[in-house]
Amino acid sequence: MGETIIEAMGLCKWFGDFTAVRDASFTVEAGEIFGFLGPNGAGKTTTINMLTGLAKPTAGAILIAGEDGIRHIKKVQQRIGIVPDESNLYEDMSGFDNLVFCASLYGMEKAQREARARQLLAQFGLAETGKRPFKAFSKGMKRKLTIAAGIIHAPRILFLDEPTTGIDVESARQIRKLIQDLNGQGTTIFLTTHYIEEAERLCHRVGFIVDGSVIRVDAIGSLMQDEDQAYRLDFTLESHQPALLEAMSQAFPNIQVSVLDPQRIRLLSPTRVELAPFIQFFEDAQIPVYEVKLVHPSLEDVFVRITGIEIARLKKEKEGQRK
Amino acid sequence: MSQLIAFWSILMKDMKNYYLKPPNISWGIIFPLSWTLMLFVRSGSPVDIREILPGVMALSILFGTTSMLAVTITFERKSRSFERLLLAPISLNLLMLAKTTGAILFGVLNAFVPVLFASFLIDLSGIHWVTAFSGVLLIAVTSTFLGLFIAVSVSEVFEAQTFSNFFRFPMMFLCGLFIPVSSLPALLQPLSYLLPLTYGADILKQSINENGFLPAPLSFSVLLAFSLALFTISLRNIKKRWIY
């Protein structure tokens, strides 16, 4: 890592009066997995479209692998692979024919493209099903074949838009593994996902985009470090009432209390806390405590703090969009 | 070389996936037969096949190309597979030429189906084949580019069909195939000259029956101008609407 392979400088995209992307600037380094996170309608897809040549920026500049991504987009497209959020291969063509066709779009010779298609079908565990028409594939298989089509020409950079959305757990796991393998082989990955835990697991760095503005770009480690400064304790109780939470806030003024579910509450403290006073407090209130857990912050916590957007809303929006 | 490989693959993919599918082959056969039968019923007496040949050929091309291209492109746009082509490292001009070449070839093949049938029934000697073929090719190119123009203007497959008819039916009745242009009401005659099929049909009439009324160089020039204009406008619209 170290060499900048994607550089977006002051990207803007307006649709009439509506600003889809506002002054977005970020860099992606060669060899990294970069996550681009944001709620539905934040401008993720518009940004990807501008980077890949499907949309023209209203203002700003793009450099991809040293080329001007606006003026020389066709040169850039030779070096990038794109996997859209929907599997968009040809339904009546077989998996093998789809891959061979996609390879031909990059000017690969017949023997070369057929060999590469066979290699990818084997690598993605689709060798047996490669002769079936694409429409007969399961969702997970379709997704895998679409990724294979995206890397048929061995691009330096792969853009993946929501790669695991709407597919079963096992296929999602396999796809995450494929992404890691590809990255291990040197492919730079630009990934958008609404599964924050997926981004946390896969990405080296992430960018948060909200309402068209990129509000933070950083390494996962740095983002977590900020969050690590707070201590989180999750208590599982028999039950809890608003009055109890109010009494807790009064008894422990330096602690923030939030409700996780009907049985769980979370205590947030800027400093390390002793457990005994809390246990005593619940004992006095005659509320049995079943479990106490020190919770390490997740990227989800960072996302919520930085963007102010609840994860539940993010997931609900995306599921709604899928339906 | 790599551009040629992409061009050829797109063309072959479209031929295999759309144009050479059994329903389209049967369309190419049934359509001219239906027109011949319709003209026979209309006249009430045995039709002069040579006389109706230019009309059947022109309409076979027009109906074969416009809706086929408009529908296939709109279908690919809906399924988002067209995005894959737009994101490939090939120029937009070449991409659209690859997409339209399949329809042009389909149109040319459609035009010669009635010629093949006619060859079994009548003597086709005396036809100026070079002019006829050139005319067929130019009608196919113009109609295909009209289909492209339609495809870029709509977003749904059914809209592509409807919009195609908006152009095809006036052309069919005003191009001089059924009623000579000179016999049309004075108000409609100028409209006839605004339609590309008028010039294409006249080339075919001249080359098959020597009864065209326009100078052939003029007809060829007008068809070329229509093709160029439709392709240029369509490309401009694609850049504006699809690479937004």
According to DSSP, the number of beta strands of chain A is 14
Report the uncertain regions of chain B: none
Mean of residue pLDDT of chain B? Answer: 89
Name the shape of chain A in a single word.
Answer: elongated
Number of helices of chain B: 10
Number of domains of chain B: 1
| CATH-assigned fold name of the largest domain in chain A | Rossmann fold
Strand arrangement in the largest pleated sheet of chain A = 6-7-8-3-9-10
Radius of gyration of chain A: 23 Å
| Structural classification of chain B | mainly alpha
* Share of helical residues of chain B: over 70%
| Mean pLDDT over all positions of chain A | 89
The span between the termini of chain B is 29 Å
Terminus-to-terminus distance of chain A = 39 Å
User: In terms of structural class, how would the helical and strand content of chain A be classed?
Assistant: alpha/beta
List keywords for this structure.
heterodimer; A: 323 residues; alpha/beta; Rossmann fold; Alpha-Beta Plaits; 2 domains; 6-stranded mixed β-sheet; 4-stranded antiparallel β-sheet; 12 helices; B: 244 residues; mainly alpha; 10 helices; globular
Describe this structure in words.
The complex is a heterodimer of chains A (323) and B (244). The two termini of chain A are 39 Å apart. Chain A has helices at 44-52, 73-79, 95-105, 110-123, 139-150, 169-184, 196-202, 220-228, 242-251, 276-284, 299-307, 311-322; strands spanning 4-15, 18-29, 33-37, 59-64, 67-68, 80-83, 157-161, 188-192, 205-210, 213-219, 231-237, 256-259, 264-269, 289-295. Chain A folds into two domains: 4-220, P-loop containing nucleotide triphosphate hydrolases (Rossmann fold), CATH 3.40.50.300; 231-296, 2-Layer Sandwich (Alpha-Beta Plaits). By secondary structure, chain A is of the alpha/beta class. The mean pLDDT of chain A is 89. In chain A, the strands form three sheets. In chain A, strands 6-7-8-3-9-10 form a six-stranded mixed sheet, sandwiched between helices. Chain A is elongated. Chain B is an all-alpha fold. Chain B has one domain. Chain B is globular and about 55 Å long. Chain A binds chain B through residues 15, 52-56, 74-75, 77-78, 82, 84, 86, 88-93, 101-102, 104-109, 149, and chain B through 1-3, 5-6, 8-10, 13, 17, 79-81, 83-91, 243-244.
